[in-house]
């Protein structure tokens, strides 16, 4: 009997997810934050790790680690939002843009930590995330 109640609760919760793709990608990004944080944490105690605490390389890689978590949670929040109405053009485009921004922002951060010239690519995830928010607002207000 208890298993039946649990299953019913899971199905009710799943019905609340408006954008399942964003829900899944969001939680994958949170997992990536934990894994990348653990990887960065291996050397945090060394004074010279990634060029030292204040180095550009170390700061941008820490930013990538935090971007995984923050943008993952934003994707999860969007997945639960009733607006914009699921299935509309605004919802579909916002969903794609949130996923793209959530994946590309930390990727560009880590690539920039590897080779500084990648910093020019930040325009892509930034524009994607701006578009996602504008589409979400537009779809929710119309």
Overall mean pLDDT score?
Answer: 91
Shape: elongated
Largest sheet: none
Q: How many strands appear in the DSSP assignment?
A: 0
Q: How many H/I helices?
A: 5
Kindly state the percentage of residues in helix: over 70%
Uncertain runs with pLDDT below 50, 5 residues or more?
Answer: none
What structural class do the secondary elements suggest? mainly alpha
**Through-space gap between termini:** 45 Å
Rg from alpha-carbon coordinates:
18 Å
List the helices and strands in order: HHHHH
What is the number of independent domains? 1
Kindly estimate the percentage of residues that lie in beta strands according to DSSP.
under 5%
Secondary structure layout plus pairing:
Elements: H1 2-16, H2 20-41, H3 56-80, H4 89-114, H5 123-141
Helix pairs in contact: 2-3, 2-4, 3-4, 4-5
Keywords:
mainly alpha; about 140 residues; about 75% helix
Give a written overview of the molecule:
The structure is a single chain. The chain has one domain. The protein contains five helices and no strands. The protein has helices at residues 2-16, 20-41, 56-80, 89-114, 123-141. With 142 residues, the chain is an all-alpha fold.
Quick rundown:
By secondary structure, the protein is an all-alpha fold.
